[in-house]
């Protein structure tokens, strides 16, 4: 009986190895206070001495990711999960019925119907691309669209289902995944995401909403864009003091995320 059980167990493990990465056993889990660089536009500056790079999934070639890995860095790959971007190579795949209103301030982006199976199929292919390129994790953007007038009638529970779908699919492929913004759902989703990426939480006094990640030993990758943090050292130091107390990994960056400048609250 023990021999039979061993053979069955071994067979199951062999089967899972053939199915990998769809049944990945583990994935990268960044620690609290991890150092990072976030650049989504322009030629990526590879020279920062940090633990993690967050770069664009489509614009970053596999050899760039290989070089970052060779220098001891992990790589998070960005894509928008909740919006259609008309310049992406897979833009033509989206169905017209799944395209909603234009994003405020972004004329070439439209909200997606996150309830659509077709939209989910596109996201699955993007996660597969992340695996193909060698990304260690992903940062899906626009995953709090239920709070916005998207042109669709979905609600908070629809957003939770979609975000959990993304997390499950990422983990099945051995990818870490970050929860982008979405302050009102952090408690509901913290167990299923490996880190958080937040923008302007100090500017808008939302940072406490993300502390649940720190309490669960998961980092908060924070970005601020206020010019005063660049122009006034005392303002930047005051903000950084708050960030360090919260154990956030905070950067001051240009809104375009093009490496025009970079200030860090971490050593």
Automatic annotation (TrEMBL):
Signal peptide segment: 1-24
Domain Glycoside-hydrolase family GH114 TIM-barrel: start-end pairs: 35-259
InterPro entries with a match to the protein in the record: Aldolase_TIM, GH, GH114_TIM-barrel
Domain of life where this protein originates: Bacteria
Keyword annotations: Signal
Record-given protein name: Endo alpha-1,4 polygalactosaminidase
